[in-house]
Amino acid sequence: MKKYPISEFFHSWQGEGCHMGKSAFFIRLMGCPIKCVWCDSAETWKPGHMPDTVERYNAEELLQFAETGKFEFIVITGGEPTIHDLTELTTTFSNNGYKIHLETCGAFKIFGKFDWVTVSPKWASLPLDENLNIADEIKLIVEERDSIKKWWDIIKPFTKTDSVWLHPEWSLRNVSEITEAINFAIAEYGKPLRVGFQLHKLYNAT
Prior knowledge:
The chain has 206 residues and is an alpha/beta fold.
């Protein structure tokens, strides 16, 4: 069986998006070619942050760890998880009755079957149209005043989802220019924009 490079796996709760507050089992994969300077998962790709040895597990092994917890779904995240072929991983969990969620930047072809797809696009590598088309929710990171308008021009044709979240880049969450831009966008564009936040960080959850 295929072995996946794993940064960590843990049972916690979803801190973002439409499933906020729900119990979940997270599988965080190693590797990301996008490398955002404000990345909050730099341990998955940044030299000096990565572990000396990367643990690798196959889908059956990860399933055994997951079955020790009680949760509503699996979240496969990263890094950027779609640089890996996730077919074996998603098939194994799906065949055992689990719902599977994906968190991706959307820039790479997705291999695997998912019940929920969150696309959080990044400027360094724009999302594929096919991934925006299947997104159940879109999460935009607001890192400057004009971020929302620039992203809106790109994603508007693909917003079949009712949920486009506006998240302040975490280190700028208290910067008035960013919060004002989010408030203005909600008033200007309305539906399907929603104000988002990384609620789990307020609870010091993983």
